[in-house]
Amino acid sequence: VLADHLGDSLASESAATGVNYDWWQEFAAEATGLGTTFSPSIIGFAAVLDNISGLLDARSRVAPIAAALGLYLAGWTFLSGGILDRYARQRPIRAHGFFAASGVYFFRFVRLAVIAGLIYWWLFGYVHPWLFDEQFVNLTRGMNVERSAFLIRAFFYVIFGTLLVGANLIVDYAKVRIVVEDRHSALGALSAAIRFIRNHFGQVIALFALNSLTFLALLAAWAIFAPGVGNAGLSMWIAFLVAQMYVIARLLLKLQFIASQTALFQANLAHSSYTSAPVPAWPDSPAAEAIHS
To answer: Do 195 and 176 form a contact (C-beta atoms < 8 A)?
Structure first.
């Protein structure tokens, strides 16, 4: 889309060597679909701030991004079972065991995801509008001090963010209980997760705080080293590699969240390296079965 719009114009040369703001404004005015995401918020640390703002303000995403997000969530749902099983056992289960575990827990996690989706739909569809479209408007009507209005909105952000974090923690520990205790019921796992969080609230929050501080440290590092707009050539590829390193660090931190939550649960309600399910084994092929017989 960008190449078609730029063509061989003089604007293409200035765009390749920095930022052509006039052309960017012209492109943004005509963009549709995925092209609408080409905005200044994609540069460096601004992308992180835009994602946080989009989450708290419940902004919808364009169809191509929503589809990509759906594929990502489906893939992560499949892999989560193998990841959790590997962490719970604390010993290698090899590729066949990993993917077998992923397959075993996939449909259980899908059922859990449906329930979690309804919870998030209620939060974004009803709670968010009630807070920001009704209560915020009522409280700030006639208010002429911008700082006071900002503090009220920030307070509502904290409330909504707390609800999101709470829902996320419940779903995370429900996954842990499904894998470690070989649970089949998504509702039963959610109920058990709520009980665990309630009975070990201090430990759960302390662990979440430590993981969150690590996440904030990563964001701080990214804010410092995030590349801005550079020239075409070597600097462009260096910026691309730095950005991919940040993505990898985010994924590693996500694995750290999963591993630490699994360890906390096992330390309180099970012994180390314990899962009630047997080690998953990939089914043998018909040829292997014939040889065995």
So the answer is: no
